[in-house]
Amino acid sequence: MWIEDLPNGKYKYCERYTDTKGKLRKVSVTLDKNSSRAQNEASRLLYNKIDAKLEKEKQKIEDEKNKITSITFWKVQDDFLAVYNDTVKARTVTARISAKNKIREIIPEETLLTELTSNYILSILEKIYYVDNYSYPYMILIKSNISMVLDYAISKGYIENNPSSKVKIKKKVETFEQRQAKKDKYLELDELKDVLKQLRIIDKPTALIVEFMALTGLRYGECVALQCKNINDETIEITGSFDPITHSKTTPKNIHSERTIALSNQAKKILDERIELNIKMNINDGNPENFIFVNRSNQPEYIENVNSRLGKIKSDKKLTTHIFRHTHIAMLTEVGIPLKAIMERVGHTNPNTTLSIYSHVTDKMSKNIVEKLNKIDL
Protein backbone atom coordinates (compact mmCIF):
# COMPACT_ATOMS: atom_id res chain seq x y z
CA MET A 1 0.00 0.00 0.00
CA TRP A 2 1.14 3.53 -0.64
CA ILE A 3 -0.22 6.94 0.28
CA GLU A 4 -0.68 10.01 -1.91
CA ASP A 5 -1.26 13.52 -0.54
CA LEU A 6 -4.24 15.25 -2.13
CA PRO A 7 -4.52 19.03 -2.77
CA ASN A 8 -7.58 19.25 -0.49
CA GLY A 9 -5.58 17.99 2.48
CA LYS A 10 -6.89 14.47 2.43
CA TYR A 11 -4.97 11.26 1.81
CA LYS A 12 -5.39 8.70 -0.93
CA TYR A 13 -4.49 5.14 0.07
CA CYS A 14 -3.67 2.88 -2.91
CA GLU A 15 -3.02 -0.81 -3.47
CA ARG A 16 -2.36 -3.02 -6.50
CA TYR A 17 -3.72 -6.51 -7.14
CA THR A 18 -3.82 -9.08 -9.94
CA ASP A 19 -7.26 -9.78 -11.42
CA THR A 20 -8.60 -13.16 -12.62
CA LYS A 21 -7.15 -12.58 -16.07
CA GLY A 22 -3.66 -11.91 -14.73
CA LYS A 23 -3.77 -8.15 -15.28
CA LEU A 24 -2.42 -5.70 -12.68
CA ARG A 25 -5.18 -3.46 -11.27
CA LYS A 26 -5.33 -0.58 -8.77
CA VAL A 27 -7.83 0.28 -6.01
CA SER A 28 -7.88 3.31 -3.71
CA VAL A 29 -9.74 4.91 -0.80
CA THR A 30 -9.58 8.47 0.49
CA LEU A 31 -9.41 9.29 4.21
CA ASP A 32 -9.04 12.51 6.18
CA LYS A 33 -6.04 11.44 8.23
CA ASN A 34 -2.67 9.72 7.83
CA SER A 35 -2.39 8.08 11.21
CA SER A 36 -1.63 4.47 12.15
CA ARG A 37 -5.31 3.94 12.84
CA ALA A 38 -6.23 5.50 9.47
CA GLN A 39 -3.69 3.30 7.71
CA ASN A 40 -5.14 0.17 9.32
CA GLU A 41 -8.63 1.26 8.31
CA ALA A 42 -7.47 2.03 4.76
CA SER A 43 -5.81 -1.38 4.53
CA ARG A 44 -9.03 -3.06 5.64
CA LEU A 45 -11.12 -1.07 3.13
CA LEU A 46 -8.70 -1.71 0.28
CA TYR A 47 -8.61 -5.47 0.79
CA ASN A 48 -12.40 -5.54 1.09
CA LYS A 49 -12.55 -3.69 -2.21
CA ILE A 50 -10.12 -6.15 -3.81
CA ASP A 51 -12.07 -9.14 -2.50
CA ALA A 52 -15.34 -7.67 -3.81
CA LYS A 53 -13.89 -7.03 -7.27
CA LEU A 54 -12.35 -10.51 -7.50
CA GLU A 55 -15.59 -12.10 -6.37
CA LYS A 56 -17.51 -10.11 -8.97
CA GLU A 57 -15.09 -11.18 -11.70
CA LYS A 58 -15.32 -14.83 -10.60
CA GLN A 59 -19.10 -14.67 -10.63
CA LYS A 60 -19.03 -13.16 -14.11
CA ILE A 61 -16.78 -15.99 -15.32
CA GLU A 62 -19.04 -18.56 -13.68
CA ASP A 63 -22.14 -17.01 -15.29
CA GLU A 64 -20.44 -17.02 -18.68
CA LYS A 65 -19.36 -20.61 -18.16
CA ASN A 66 -22.91 -21.64 -17.26
CA LYS A 67 -24.20 -19.78 -20.29
CA ILE A 68 -21.73 -21.58 -22.58
CA THR A 69 -22.41 -25.01 -21.13
CA SER A 70 -26.14 -24.50 -21.73
CA ILE A 71 -25.71 -23.71 -25.45
CA THR A 72 -27.06 -26.42 -27.74
CA PHE A 73 -25.39 -27.65 -30.92
CA TRP A 74 -28.47 -26.59 -32.90
CA LYS A 75 -28.12 -22.99 -31.64
CA VAL A 76 -24.46 -22.78 -32.66
CA GLN A 77 -25.28 -24.41 -36.00
CA ASP A 78 -27.97 -21.79 -36.71
CA ASP A 79 -25.63 -18.95 -35.71
CA PHE A 80 -22.88 -20.35 -37.93
CA LEU A 81 -25.11 -20.75 -40.99
CA ALA A 82 -26.52 -17.24 -40.55
CA VAL A 83 -22.97 -15.92 -41.03
CA TYR A 84 -21.71 -18.58 -43.44
CA ASN A 85 -24.61 -18.33 -45.89
CA ASP A 86 -23.66 -14.73 -46.70
CA THR A 87 -20.19 -15.83 -47.81
CA VAL A 88 -21.04 -18.55 -50.35
CA LYS A 89 -23.13 -19.06 -53.47
CA ALA A 90 -26.83 -19.92 -53.36
CA ARG A 91 -26.14 -23.45 -54.60
CA THR A 92 -23.70 -24.08 -51.73
CA VAL A 93 -26.21 -22.68 -49.25
CA THR A 94 -28.77 -25.21 -50.52
CA ALA A 95 -26.26 -28.04 -50.06
CA ARG A 96 -25.39 -26.89 -46.53
CA ILE A 97 -29.06 -26.70 -45.56
CA SER A 98 -29.55 -30.24 -46.84
CA ALA A 99 -26.59 -31.41 -44.72
CA LYS A 100 -27.94 -29.48 -41.74
CA ASN A 101 -31.29 -31.25 -41.99
CA LYS A 102 -29.59 -34.64 -42.13
CA ILE A 103 -27.45 -33.81 -39.09
CA ARG A 104 -30.55 -32.79 -37.16
CA GLU A 105 -32.11 -36.17 -37.86
CA ILE A 106 -29.18 -37.66 -35.93
CA ILE A 107 -28.35 -35.07 -33.27
CA PRO A 108 -31.39 -34.24 -31.05
CA GLU A 109 -32.37 -30.59 -30.57
CA GLU A 110 -31.58 -30.59 -26.83
CA THR A 111 -28.01 -31.88 -27.34
CA LEU A 112 -25.55 -29.50 -25.70
CA LEU A 113 -22.51 -28.29 -27.61
CA THR A 114 -20.26 -29.71 -24.89
CA GLU A 115 -21.77 -33.16 -25.41
CA LEU A 116 -20.23 -33.43 -28.89
CA THR A 117 -17.17 -35.38 -27.87
CA SER A 118 -14.96 -37.34 -30.26
CA ASN A 119 -16.71 -40.57 -29.24
CA TYR A 120 -20.14 -39.03 -29.81
CA ILE A 121 -19.20 -37.81 -33.30
CA LEU A 122 -17.52 -41.13 -34.12
CA SER A 123 -20.67 -43.07 -33.20
CA ILE A 124 -22.76 -40.80 -35.45
CA LEU A 125 -20.49 -41.22 -38.46
CA GLU A 126 -20.09 -44.96 -37.94
CA LYS A 127 -23.87 -45.35 -37.96
CA ILE A 128 -24.20 -43.30 -41.16
CA TYR A 129 -21.46 -45.22 -42.97
CA TYR A 130 -21.44 -48.76 -41.56
CA VAL A 131 -25.08 -49.22 -40.47
CA ASP A 132 -27.15 -46.96 -42.73
CA ASN A 133 -24.80 -47.67 -45.68
CA TYR A 134 -24.47 -44.12 -46.92
CA SER A 135 -21.48 -43.55 -49.19
CA TYR A 136 -18.06 -42.64 -47.84
CA PRO A 137 -18.10 -39.17 -49.53
CA TYR A 138 -21.53 -38.45 -48.01
CA MET A 139 -20.29 -39.44 -44.55
CA ILE A 140 -17.27 -37.14 -45.01
CA LEU A 141 -19.66 -34.35 -46.06
CA ILE A 142 -21.61 -34.74 -42.80
CA LYS A 143 -18.37 -34.77 -40.79
CA SER A 144 -17.17 -31.64 -42.59
CA ASN A 145 -20.39 -29.79 -41.77
CA ILE A 146 -20.19 -30.74 -38.09
CA SER A 147 -16.53 -29.72 -38.02
CA MET A 148 -17.25 -26.27 -39.48
CA VAL A 149 -19.84 -25.61 -36.77
CA LEU A 150 -17.35 -26.67 -34.08
CA ASP A 151 -14.63 -24.45 -35.57
CA TYR A 152 -17.10 -21.58 -35.38
CA ALA A 153 -17.76 -22.47 -31.72
CA ILE A 154 -14.00 -22.20 -31.06
CA SER A 155 -13.91 -18.73 -32.64
CA LYS A 156 -16.75 -17.68 -30.31
CA GLY A 157 -14.90 -18.99 -27.27
CA TYR A 158 -17.46 -21.68 -26.48
CA ILE A 159 -14.97 -24.55 -26.70
CA GLU A 160 -11.19 -24.78 -26.91
CA ASN A 161 -10.69 -27.75 -29.27
CA ASN A 162 -12.53 -29.33 -32.19
CA PRO A 163 -13.30 -32.94 -31.17
CA SER A 164 -14.08 -33.96 -34.76
CA SER A 165 -10.42 -33.50 -35.73
CA LYS A 166 -9.57 -36.72 -33.85
CA VAL A 167 -12.27 -38.76 -35.59
CA LYS A 168 -11.09 -41.16 -38.29
CA ILE A 169 -13.32 -43.55 -40.24
CA LYS A 170 -11.80 -46.43 -42.20
CA LYS A 171 -13.14 -47.14 -45.67
CA LYS A 172 -15.03 -50.36 -46.18
CA VAL A 173 -13.61 -52.96 -48.54
CA GLU A 174 -14.59 -52.00 -52.06
CA THR A 175 -17.30 -54.23 -53.53
CA PHE A 176 -17.55 -55.44 -57.10
CA GLU A 177 -20.54 -53.13 -57.58
CA GLN A 178 -18.53 -50.13 -56.39
CA ARG A 179 -15.69 -50.97 -58.74
CA GLN A 180 -18.20 -51.29 -61.55
CA ALA A 181 -19.65 -47.91 -60.57
CA LYS A 182 -16.28 -46.32 -61.27
CA LYS A 183 -16.41 -47.69 -64.79
CA ASP A 184 -19.95 -46.40 -65.09
CA LYS A 185 -18.73 -42.85 -64.39
CA TYR A 186 -17.89 -42.37 -68.04
CA LEU A 187 -18.95 -43.57 -71.48
CA GLU A 188 -16.89 -45.56 -73.92
CA LEU A 189 -16.65 -44.00 -77.38
CA ASP A 190 -19.25 -46.33 -78.90
CA GLU A 191 -21.58 -45.65 -75.96
CA LEU A 192 -21.18 -41.91 -76.41
CA LYS A 193 -21.97 -42.17 -80.13
CA ASP A 194 -25.12 -44.15 -79.34
CA VAL A 195 -26.27 -41.62 -76.72
CA LEU A 196 -25.74 -38.72 -79.12
CA LYS A 197 -27.61 -40.57 -81.87
CA GLN A 198 -30.65 -41.09 -79.64
CA LEU A 199 -30.48 -37.59 -78.20
CA ARG A 200 -30.44 -35.91 -81.62
CA ILE A 201 -33.84 -37.48 -82.24
CA ILE A 202 -35.21 -36.43 -78.84
CA ASP A 203 -33.85 -32.86 -78.83
CA LYS A 204 -31.14 -31.58 -81.16
CA PRO A 205 -30.10 -28.52 -79.04
CA THR A 206 -29.59 -30.78 -76.01
CA ALA A 207 -27.46 -33.12 -78.12
CA LEU A 208 -25.22 -30.16 -78.99
CA ILE A 209 -24.75 -29.31 -75.30
CA VAL A 210 -23.89 -32.90 -74.40
CA GLU A 211 -21.48 -33.34 -77.29
CA PHE A 212 -19.77 -30.04 -76.48
CA MET A 213 -19.30 -31.10 -72.85
CA ALA A 214 -17.80 -34.42 -73.95
CA LEU A 215 -15.36 -32.55 -76.21
CA THR A 216 -14.34 -29.89 -73.67
CA GLY A 217 -14.82 -31.42 -70.21
CA LEU A 218 -16.83 -28.42 -69.00
CA ARG A 219 -19.09 -28.66 -65.97
CA TYR A 220 -22.71 -28.16 -66.96
CA GLY A 221 -22.92 -24.76 -65.26
CA GLU A 222 -19.77 -23.62 -67.09
CA CYS A 223 -21.13 -24.84 -70.41
CA VAL A 224 -24.47 -23.01 -70.30
CA ALA A 225 -22.80 -19.88 -68.87
CA LEU A 226 -20.75 -19.50 -72.07
CA GLN A 227 -21.33 -16.19 -73.85
CA CYS A 228 -20.32 -15.07 -77.31
CA LYS A 229 -17.70 -12.78 -75.76
CA ASN A 230 -16.01 -15.85 -74.21
CA ILE A 231 -15.21 -17.33 -77.65
CA ASN A 232 -11.90 -16.68 -79.36
CA ASP A 233 -10.73 -18.17 -82.66
CA GLU A 234 -9.32 -21.38 -81.23
CA THR A 235 -10.21 -21.22 -77.53
CA ILE A 236 -12.94 -20.40 -75.03
CA GLU A 237 -12.55 -18.53 -71.75
CA ILE A 238 -14.26 -20.04 -68.71
CA THR A 239 -15.19 -17.01 -66.62
CA GLY A 240 -18.21 -18.18 -64.67
CA SER A 241 -20.91 -20.73 -63.99
CA PHE A 242 -24.70 -20.60 -64.29
CA ASP A 243 -26.35 -20.92 -60.87
CA PRO A 244 -29.58 -22.96 -61.12
CA ILE A 245 -30.85 -21.49 -57.84
CA THR A 246 -30.57 -17.79 -58.69
CA HIS A 247 -30.75 -18.36 -62.47
CA SER A 248 -27.79 -16.06 -63.03
CA LYS A 249 -24.13 -16.25 -64.02
CA THR A 250 -21.83 -16.32 -61.00
CA THR A 251 -18.13 -16.72 -60.40
CA PRO A 252 -16.78 -20.21 -61.21
CA LYS A 253 -16.46 -23.01 -58.66
CA ASN A 254 -12.94 -21.95 -57.59
CA ILE A 255 -9.96 -19.95 -58.82
CA HIS A 256 -8.65 -22.95 -60.78
CA SER A 257 -11.96 -23.13 -62.66
CA GLU A 258 -11.09 -19.88 -64.45
CA ARG A 259 -9.20 -21.21 -67.42
CA THR A 260 -8.71 -21.16 -71.18
CA ILE A 261 -9.63 -24.27 -73.13
CA ALA A 262 -8.41 -25.08 -76.62
CA LEU A 263 -11.18 -26.22 -78.98
CA SER A 264 -11.17 -29.15 -81.36
CA ASN A 265 -12.54 -28.64 -84.86
CA GLN A 266 -15.77 -30.43 -83.92
CA ALA A 267 -16.21 -28.29 -80.80
CA LYS A 268 -15.85 -25.15 -82.95
CA LYS A 269 -18.45 -26.52 -85.37
CA ILE A 270 -20.88 -27.06 -82.51
CA LEU A 271 -20.52 -23.44 -81.36
CA ASP A 272 -21.04 -22.18 -84.92
CA GLU A 273 -24.09 -24.42 -85.36
CA ARG A 274 -25.62 -23.35 -82.07
CA ILE A 275 -25.04 -19.63 -82.71
CA GLU A 276 -26.54 -20.00 -86.19
CA LEU A 277 -29.54 -21.80 -84.67
CA ASN A 278 -30.02 -18.96 -82.17
CA ILE A 279 -30.05 -16.46 -85.04
CA LYS A 280 -32.62 -18.48 -86.99
CA MET A 281 -34.86 -18.70 -83.92
CA ASN A 282 -34.31 -14.99 -83.13
CA ILE A 283 -33.18 -16.05 -79.66
CA ASN A 284 -30.36 -13.55 -79.34
CA ASP A 285 -32.81 -10.69 -79.91
CA GLY A 286 -34.13 -11.35 -76.42
CA ASN A 287 -30.84 -12.58 -75.07
CA PRO A 288 -28.79 -9.46 -74.28
CA GLU A 289 -26.19 -11.52 -72.41
CA ASN A 290 -25.60 -13.54 -75.60
CA PHE A 291 -25.60 -16.89 -73.85
CA ILE A 292 -25.03 -19.66 -76.38
CA PHE A 293 -26.77 -22.76 -75.08
CA VAL A 294 -30.19 -21.31 -74.34
CA ASN A 295 -33.77 -22.56 -74.29
CA ARG A 296 -36.76 -21.04 -76.10
CA SER A 297 -37.20 -18.59 -73.22
CA ASN A 298 -33.77 -17.11 -73.95
CA GLN A 299 -32.37 -18.49 -70.70
CA PRO A 300 -29.43 -20.89 -70.32
CA GLU A 301 -30.96 -24.35 -70.61
CA TYR A 302 -31.96 -25.70 -67.20
CA ILE A 303 -30.07 -28.78 -66.07
CA GLU A 304 -33.32 -30.45 -64.98
CA ASN A 305 -34.57 -30.37 -68.58
CA VAL A 306 -31.36 -31.90 -69.93
CA ASN A 307 -31.31 -34.66 -67.31
CA SER A 308 -34.98 -35.37 -68.06
CA ARG A 309 -34.18 -35.88 -71.75
CA LEU A 310 -31.19 -38.04 -70.87
CA GLY A 311 -33.56 -40.18 -68.83
CA LYS A 312 -35.41 -41.10 -72.03
CA ILE A 313 -32.30 -42.65 -73.58
CA LYS A 314 -31.75 -46.40 -73.51
CA SER A 315 -28.40 -47.03 -71.84
CA ASP A 316 -26.82 -49.49 -69.42
CA LYS A 317 -25.34 -46.57 -67.49
CA LYS A 318 -26.99 -43.86 -65.44
CA LEU A 319 -26.91 -40.76 -67.59
CA THR A 320 -26.52 -37.32 -66.04
CA THR A 321 -24.80 -34.25 -67.39
CA HIS A 322 -21.68 -34.95 -65.30
CA ILE A 323 -20.95 -38.26 -67.03
CA PHE A 324 -19.91 -36.34 -70.16
CA ARG A 325 -17.28 -34.38 -68.23
CA HIS A 326 -15.90 -37.70 -66.99
CA THR A 327 -16.10 -39.07 -70.52
CA HIS A 328 -13.85 -36.23 -71.66
CA ILE A 329 -11.29 -37.19 -68.99
CA ALA A 330 -11.41 -40.80 -70.20
CA MET A 331 -10.92 -39.77 -73.84
CA LEU A 332 -7.91 -37.59 -72.97
CA THR A 333 -6.42 -40.46 -70.96
CA GLU A 334 -6.81 -42.89 -73.87
CA VAL A 335 -4.93 -40.58 -76.23
CA GLY A 336 -2.06 -40.30 -73.74
CA ILE A 337 -2.54 -36.82 -72.24
CA PRO A 338 -0.68 -36.55 -68.88
CA LEU A 339 -2.74 -36.41 -65.70
CA LYS A 340 -1.60 -32.89 -64.73
CA ALA A 341 -2.59 -31.52 -68.16
CA ILE A 342 -6.03 -33.16 -67.85
CA MET A 343 -6.55 -31.64 -64.40
CA GLU A 344 -5.66 -28.17 -65.70
CA ARG A 345 -8.02 -28.54 -68.66
CA VAL A 346 -11.01 -29.61 -66.57
CA GLY A 347 -10.22 -27.29 -63.64
CA HIS A 348 -9.62 -29.94 -61.00
CA THR A 349 -7.66 -29.04 -57.84
CA ASN A 350 -8.22 -32.38 -56.09
CA PRO A 351 -6.80 -35.24 -58.18
CA ASN A 352 -9.04 -37.91 -56.63
CA THR A 353 -11.89 -37.63 -59.13
CA THR A 354 -9.52 -37.39 -62.09
CA LEU A 355 -7.47 -40.32 -60.79
CA SER A 356 -10.49 -42.59 -60.31
CA ILE A 357 -11.20 -42.36 -64.04
CA TYR A 358 -7.56 -42.04 -65.17
CA SER A 359 -6.52 -45.19 -63.29
CA HIS A 360 -9.39 -47.26 -64.65
CA VAL A 361 -8.73 -46.22 -68.24
CA THR A 362 -4.99 -46.85 -67.96
CA ASP A 363 -5.71 -50.34 -66.53
CA LYS A 364 -7.85 -51.04 -69.55
CA MET A 365 -5.14 -49.69 -71.86
CA SER A 366 -2.60 -52.03 -70.24
CA LYS A 367 -4.84 -55.01 -70.99
CA ASN A 368 -5.14 -53.85 -74.59
CA ILE A 369 -1.35 -53.79 -74.84
CA VAL A 370 -1.18 -57.45 -73.79
CA GLU A 371 -3.93 -58.39 -76.24
CA LYS A 372 -2.00 -56.72 -79.08
CA LEU A 373 1.26 -58.37 -78.01
CA ASN A 374 -0.45 -61.77 -78.02
CA LYS A 375 -1.36 -61.25 -81.69
CA ILE A 376 2.26 -60.75 -82.71
CA ASP A 377 3.66 -63.92 -84.32
CA LEU A 378 7.44 -64.04 -84.21
Automatic annotation (TrEMBL):
Any GO BP annotation: DNA recombination
GO molecular function, one term: DNA binding
Signal peptide: none
InterPro entries: DNA_brk_join_enz, Integrase-like_cat_sf, Integrase_catalytic, Integrase_recombinase_N, Phage_Integrase
UniProt domain Tyr recombinase: residue ranges: 182-371
Alphabetical UniProt keywords: DNA integration, DNA recombination, DNA-binding
Family the entry assigns: Belongs to the 'phage' integrase family.
Protein name per the record: Tyrosine-type recombinase/integrase
Naturally occurring in which organism (per UniProt): Lactococcus hircilactis
